[in-house]
Design a protein that fits this description.
Layout lengths: L6 H18 L3 E17 L2 E19 L2 E7 L5 H13 L32 H16 L4 E20 L4 E17 L6 E9 L8 H14 L9 E7 L1 H14 L2 H6 L19 E3 L22 E5 L2 E2 L6 H7 L7 E4 L2 E4 L4 E3 L6 H8 L2 E8 L9 E12 L2 E14 H7 L1 E2 L9 E2 L3 E9 L2
Parallel strand pairs: 7-14, 13-18
Antiparallel strand pairs: 1-2, 1-4, 2-3, 4-5, 5-6, 7-19, 8-9, 8-13, 9-10, 11-12, 14-15, 15-16, 16-19, 17-19
Helix pairs in contact: 1-2, 3-4
Length: 447
């Protein structure tokens, strides 16, 4: 499979762009060359609905003339000189940005680590079809499941090279496998649906298709005959799949760009308690086989793990070089490439688990809401106000009583973070990894 992507060819493309940009008059520049291939098979009711194979290449050149910059992209590199000349001409007429520029050369990664990101197994359409059909068959066997909402299996390979005019060249290749199944329970207007899935860097780490399909079916059946709640205040538990959303809200709030703009509800909280004592949240770009693992960031900087939240206290912003300059800080290797340049962001973000199981937290709460699905975005990043549609289960005496739907959960993330209590069931497979969490005293708006 590694023959599909030739890293030496990617390195050549990037190097040619850098050379052309310097000859065209750029003071500094960097170039990214990306290529990828993917294959997916979708099935429904035992038949293949769609098989999709895609291959793509992209190059992006960013040039600097003093503190002016511009970026151009192309799908092919037939004429690197023309692309470079266009970028330089654009940069000459753009406004100056006092924070623009390449990363400090002293901070560039000197040796590219091997992070075990590439599985050599390539899956063909027949194998992907069999995986999807197996998941679907298992879901349909669950009592109460009326039909399949479809199953999908996929394989993807991607390669990336970054080259800069001040001496950095780095490359890495990643693989990704996926499998999902959606089950439908009930009939007519009483139908409910749910899903289950798995995505992994190595195929050997994938869950058994039958387990994925069976869980999708069981989840759909559990949702049948939902009730509506009256408006109340209660303890709300989020199962791990839903609790991951809090890491997304936190990541946006500690993004250096939001801090520099003053548009984060945490902008004044550095070094202060944000979560309860004992809460630890780690960001780790070097996590073995992680979904967002990478040997270097979008500027060529290496980075290690750090505790974003340590014993409940906020310790870091996510910073690329530009936002670090604006804030008077040092970048921390969290630059992501995108569009015309870089932006800061998380890598593998993990809320470390507590000691209580989900069942223990339900028993401790007595009664409350277990959220299994969230709808909409409903978060104000400036104020922290939170309002999201949800469905799940109402529980009494620690036991599930009835499924519920068409409800809204409201609060403010400042207060919610402070009261958040993690469970023990960490799901570490994804770039935002969380256990179930419990939050007391949230408003539930119902009928």
């Amino acid at each position: 499979m590694t023959d599909v992507i030739d890293k030496s060819e990617l390195e050549t493309r990037a190097a040619r762009l850098v050379e052309a940009a310097l000859k065209a008059g750029a003071d500094a520049c960097d170039a990214v060359a990306i290529t990828g291939v993917s294959l997916s098979v979708d099935v429904r009711e035992g038949k293949v609905e769609e098989t999709d194979r895609s291959e793509g290449d992209d190059v992006t050149l960013r040039v600097f003339i003093g503190r002016r910059s511009a970026s151009v992209s192309a799908n092919t590199l037939d004429d690197p000189r023309a692309l470079a000349e266009r970028a330089v001409a654009m940069a000459r007429v753009t406004p100056e940005d006092p924070y623009a520029g390449l990363a400090d050369p002293d901070l560039l990664l000197k040796q590219i680590p091997d992070l075990d990101l590439l599985d050599s197994r390539e899956l063909g359409a027949a194998e992907l079809k069999d995986l999807a059909l197996a998941a679907e068959a298992a879901g349909l066997e669950v009592a109460g499941v009326s039909k399949s909402g479809g199953a999908s299996a996929s394989w993807r390979l991607a390669g990336m090279v970054l080259a800069t005019s001040h001496g950095f060249t780095g490359a890495y290749t990643t693989s990704r496998y996926g499998l999902s199944m959606t089950a439908v329970a009930g009939e007519g207007t009483a139908m409910e649906r749910d899903y289950d899935f798995d995505y992994q860097t190595f195929f050997a780490d994938m869950e058994d298709p039958a387990r994925i399909g069976r869980r999708a079916g069981e989840r759909a059946v559990r949702r049948l005959n939902p009730q509506k709640l009256t408006t109340r205040t209660a303890t709300v538990l989020y199962e791990a799949r839903a609790a991951r959303s809090f890491l997304g809200h936190l990541s946006g709030a500690v993004n250096g760009a939001a801090i520099a703009r003053g548009t984060s509800f945490l902008k004044d909280r550095m070094g202060q308690p944000v979560f309860a004592p004992g809460i630890r949240i780690t960001d780790d770009p070097l996590k073995p086989r992680g979904a967002a693992t990478r040997p270097f960031d979008g500027e060529g900087l290496g980075a290690g793990a750090f505790d974003l939240i340590d014993d409940g206290v906020l310790r870091h912003w996510f910073l690329d070089s530009a936002t670090a300059r604006e804030l008077g800080l040092a970048p921390n290797g969290r630059a992501h490439r995108g569009g015309a340049g870089t932006s800061p962001g998380a890598t593998n973000l993990t809320l470390h688990p507590g000691r209580e199981s989900l069942e223990d937290m339900m028993r401790a709460a007595g009664s409350g809401l277990l959220v299994t699905d969230l709808i909409g975005h409903g978060v104000n990043g400036v104020t922290g106000d939170y309002s999201r549609g949800a469905s799940g289960f109402w529980f009494e005496n620690g036991e599930i009583v009835t499924p519920v739907s068409e409800i809204t959960i409201a609060g403010n993330l400042k207060d919610m973070f402070a009261r958040l209590r993690p469970g023990s069931d960490l799901d570490a497979r994804y770039s935002a990894a969380s256990p179930s969490v419990a939050i007391e005293g949230l408003t539930i708006a119902g009928a």
